[in-house]
Amino acid sequence: LHLKELALPLLFLQGQRDALATPALLSASVGQQPNAQLVFLSDANHSLEVRKQVDYSTISSMVRQFIDLQQ
Predict the structure, then answer these.
(1) What is the value of pTM for the model shown?
(2) Based on the number of CB atoms within 10 Å of its own CB, is 15 exposed (0-12), middle (13-18) or buried (19 or more)?
(3) CA end-to-end span of the chain, whole Å?
(4) Secondary structure (H, E, C), 5-48
(5) d(CA 12, CA 8)
(6) What is the largest CA-CA distance in the chain?
(7) How far apart are CA 1 and CA 21, in angstroms?
């Protein structure tokens, strides 16, 4: 199954410090998906780990907003 075949909304969370996938590469890939949204998390790496303490309520709020928009 390819992502393009999915008929449901997709939310991609990506760390800005990801050394494996650049923002340009991900933006292009996600842009090809219908109903997809890409959110970059500042100071996060590929595993969404951050170097400093992060307010996870911000991430929770982004996910909640995405879910609410789908209803």
Answers:
(1) 0.72
(2) buried
(3) 25
(4) HCCCCEEEEEECCCCCCCHHHHHHHHHCCCCEEEEEECCECCCC
(5) 13
(6) 38
(7) 22
Beta bridge partners, 37, equal: 11
Cβ neighbours of 30 (radius 10 Å): 17
Q: Which is nearest to 53 in space by CA: 65, 64, 43, 62?
A: 43
pLDDT of res. 55: 67
Residue pair 36/69 in contact by the 8 Å Cβ criterion: no
* Coil/strand/helix, residue 55: coil
- Residues 23-64: tens digit of each pLDDT: 888 888 888 888 889 988 888 888 777 777 666 777 788 889
Distance CA 29, CA 37 (A): 11
